[in-house]
Structures are given as C-alpha cells and as structure tokens.
Write a structure and sequence with these properties.
Layout: E1 2-9, H1 21-38, E2 42-47, E3 55-60, E4 63-68, E5 77-85, H2 89-97, E6 106-111
Antiparallel strand pairs: 1-5, 1-6, 2-5, 3-4
Protein name: YciI family protein
Family: Belongs to the YciI family.
Organism: Devosia oryziradicis
Length: 113
C-alpha cells in the first residue's frame, strides 16, 4: 500500500541549530532516500520552497480567488513529501519516523486513496 509522508517543520529553527547540523540533516535525508530506494519503499520525494512562496487558490461560485501564502497559519509548515510503499500503517509509521527532518519537526503519515 502507498503512504504519503508529509514532512513539516518550523523553518525558523534552522538558524537556531548548532553549526553544521542543518547540513547534516540534508545529507542524512539524501542518504535515507537512497536507503528507501534500495529497500523498495521509495516511490517519490520532493522538498518544497519556503511557505512564503505559496499561493492558496479557491474556487467559489465559478470564480477563482488567490491568496499569498499557505492556507493554514501554523508554526510547522509542509516542507516536502516522501511517497512510500509499505506493508501496513505500522511499517509506514516506522519509515516516516526515521525521516531525518522528524528530528526537528514532524511527519504526517497518510494512506493514499
């Protein structure tokens, strides 16, 4: 079954990390993607630009409106995703928990319909 792991964190925390820690998280993330590929769990992954580059669109009564920024006013914003293959939710949660950005943020694990 496929699961989407939404990776979320507060981008302002990057400046508070010890020197080199952010670079280590980035390297660990790339290594983890390769590990998931080798184990047959990896389908796709992408990092997203900063939330201030987002535009939220809505369609109401046939008219589109656009608002700058993400819809949700949250401290932790979606930073990227990993689409995985896992036997069940428990395996998907274990995979999601090991995503390096989970160390400074969170990972929402959701089955794909």
């Amino acid at each position: 079954m496929r699961y989407l792991c939404l990776v979320c964190f507060d981008g302002s925390i990057i400046d508070t990390l010890p020197p080199g820690e952010w670079d280590k998280i980035v390297r660990d993330s790339q290594d983890y993607d390769r590990e998931l590929m080798e184990r047959g769990h990896f389908i796709a992954a992408e990092a997203l630009m900063s939330p201030d580059t987002a535009t939220t669109v809505r369609m109401r009564q046939g008219k589109m409106t656009a608002t700058d920024g993400p819809f949700a006013e949250l401290k932790e914003q979606v930073a990227g995703f990993i689409l995985i293959e896992a036997a069940d939710l428990n395996e998907a949660m274990r995979i999601g928990a090991n995503i390096p950005l989970a160390r400074i943020g969170c990972v929402e694990v959701r089955p794909v319909m």
